[in-house]
Amino acid sequence: MTPDICVVGTGPGALTVATTAALFGVSVVLVAPPATDGAEQPLTGSSACVALAAAAQRLSALREAGRFGLSLGEPQLDAAQLRGHAERLADALALNGSAERLAALGIVQLRDEPHFLNRHTLAAGEHRIRARRFVIALGAQPAAPSVPGLAELPLLTLETLMAAPRWPERLLVLGGEPAGVEIAQAMRRLGSEVVLILPEGLLPQEDPEACDLIRRALLRDGVVLHEGRGLLRAESARHRPRLVLAPREENAAETAVEGTHLLVASGRKPRLAGLDLDLAGIRADDSGIPVDRGLRTANRRIFAIGDCARIAGAPPCGHAGEHHAGLVVRNALFRLPVNATRAALPRLTLSQPELASLGLSEAEARRQGTIGVLRWPYAENARARAEGRSEGLIKVVTDRRGRILGVTIVGAQAGELIGLWSLAVRQRLNVRDVADLALPAPTLSEISKRAALSVHTPLASRPGLRRLIGFLRRFG
Fold it and tell me: Is 41 a residue whose pLDDT tops 60?
């Protein structure tokens, strides 16, 4: 087989490359590794997180209805119906990658384990593919930390949580990354006791001030937190998982936490096993395949995107695959130069309140020189107060000239509000450009405008401007 492009993978990034290229009349072969158990598993970790977070948000809204004069009974959870909702969500999203749609676009799909034979040829079962360009988009899989005894315990992952035969009564969640925080809070609001173990701290990639608001929300919901404590070992007690944590201070006793279920959300590793990348002239390690700013590997005919790619100078982002796919299509089809490190990709944690961010944090920006920090609280927004969602803030970090370096939003619909700032950073706008925007009112989007307008606050105290205004007043 000699297509123009051969895509290896099954996720959103792989489908975006394959379908976009096919729409432009390019011949495409999509190699999708079969499921590990021989059957399709449509329920992904992303679908589970989104479904659980949405259910927890609805349940919380019902419980708070009394604040608006509404009298409702205590809501009840039907775990089977929630699982069905998550599966329907996954099925609907999977339609984009259905065999019928791919065939209609002229994409040849192969379901076999892929591996490279040399720098120019990929094998998939009995097929041999010599493509002009290859794109590796295999994503990542859960990776349990190296802790004595952990591998011997029955572990849940984001993909298997919803399929657990018994709803977790007391869930231990290991990991302080966004998915772990999302699952911990959602499961607590849905009725489970939850213990969240955070050896590296809570959301270490995010702004500490924003993390404090998330921490308060978790504690208010009843999630038990163990932060910054190493995991010594894992063991089984009465057929239940038990984690032994390092003491808080020297000469103190160890702490053991026990639960009915254990979910590991502490990290993921690229799915690269069996690809024989060395035969293709590509080096890789546990962190992924090194690529340049154009997402090319050491073999210039082969690209790597998403979670399986490691880009020097670009921070990791769990949802970069589709953005990378667009860059690869531009480069492979139209020979346009691309730079994967230029765009500040937004990050989102689906907690309540939500936390969204992009670019540099305040601490990172200060290490680069003099900065400005603009902020505005949700409590000053009429829509937020009317809806009872006044907890939160926006923080905008700029350089001395007002160029936007980074933004952090923690509060209701933070994931929606960050889109405006993503565009501003992409277009290299000044924060004063955002301040000049006309936005609808009353909306939460006014929070962004008010934060941007605060760039003018120091002007009010300048004596020269005050004298100028006084002079102009003489003319009426």
Answer: no
Pairing mode of beta strands 133-136, 140-142: unpaired
pLDDT > 90 fraction of the chain, expressed in percent and rounded = 63
CB atoms within 10 A of CB 167: 18
Integer angstrom CA distances of residue 207 from 153, 266, 272, 413: 34, 19, 32, 18
The DSSP symbol for 316 reads -
Predicted confidence at residue 40, as pLDDT, reads 47
Strand ranges inside 266-380, DSSP E: 268-270, 289-291, 302-304, 309-311, 347-349, 354-359, 371-377
For residues 111 and 121, give the distance between their C-alpha atoms in angstroms, rounded to a whole number: 17
Tokens, residue 308:
């399986």
C-alpha to C-alpha distance for 279 and 245, rounded to whole angstroms: 43
Residue 306 tokens, joined = 């998403």
* Strands laid side by side in the 122-124 sheet: 114-116, 122-124, 127-129
Longest dimension (CA), the chain: 89
Answer yes or no: are the C-beta atoms of 318 and 378 closer than 8 Å: no
pTM of the model: 0.91
- Residue 38 is given by DSSP the state S
**Cα within 13 Å of Cα(366), Cβ side:** 5
Average pLDDT of the chain? Answer: 90
How large is the average pLDDT for residues 116-128? 96
Three-state SS for 169? coil
